[in-house]
Amino acid sequence: MWRGCGGTGRFLHGVKEEGAWGKHGFTHGSEPKARDAHERHSIAVDVVAYDVPGWGVGELYLLGDRLLYHELPRAGAAAAAADGHPLVDQIQAHFRGERVSFGDVELDVEWTTPFQRGLAEALRGIPWGEVVTYGELAALAGRPNAARAAGTFCAENRFPLVVPCHRVVSVGGLGGYGSLGIDYKRRLLALEGVEL
Q: What is the H or E stretch that residue 123 is in?
């Protein structure tokens, strides 16, 4: 089950998982999440695990070149990590503190509403080392009164780093960061020279 900005991983590198990708995320085996057959499609997904020293192991879920889901590295994740995928190289460079653009990464956004696509595009436009508030993000996406919806989108973000929700903060402080927590968000921002 995906949980946005972190999630929980269960797959190993190099494995093609048969599963379903629908409104409710990717499922495999006997864990159907879609509510009915109209919401579910069988696909083969490449899962690529990667290691980032000092951060842990993360995973990419890919359909060809399209990113379906990205799980940030976390300590204690047990997976055989591999190098060599171009997106893995970019992610590892980011975690070394190098300015990396993920603008060329194709995302699976077919499940999103037009407003959510606007939020994703606005987030991808926030430069390295800068932050915006949830309200400012909503305004960038064309709905200035939708700060809570922007926060919900960030909390459910399937593409952290590529759609950099860590660059969105609350008016009164750092804001949340899903299952990985505020300290993780603070570390991501510190990589970019942002101290809050």
A: helix 114-124
Residue 169 bridge partners (DSSP)? 133
Token couple for 171: 């008016």
Residues of the chain with CATH 1.10.10.10: 114-191
95 with 160: CB under 8 angstroms? Answer: no
User: Does the annotation mark 165 as catalytic?
Assistant: yes
Confidence tier at 196 by pLDDT (50, 70, 90):
confident
What are 46-70's pLDDT values in tens digits?
Answer: 999 999 999 999 999 999 999 999 9
* CATH number assigned to the domain with residue range 114-191, chosen from the 4 options 1.10.1760.20, 1.10.10.10, 1.10.760.10, 1.10.630.10: 1.10.10.10
Q: Are 26 and 19 in contact (CB under 8 A)?
A: yes
| Euclidean distance between CA atoms 38 and 1, whole angstroms | 19
> Catalytic residue among 165, 168, 188, 189, which?
165
State yes or no: pLDDT of 29 exceeds 90: no
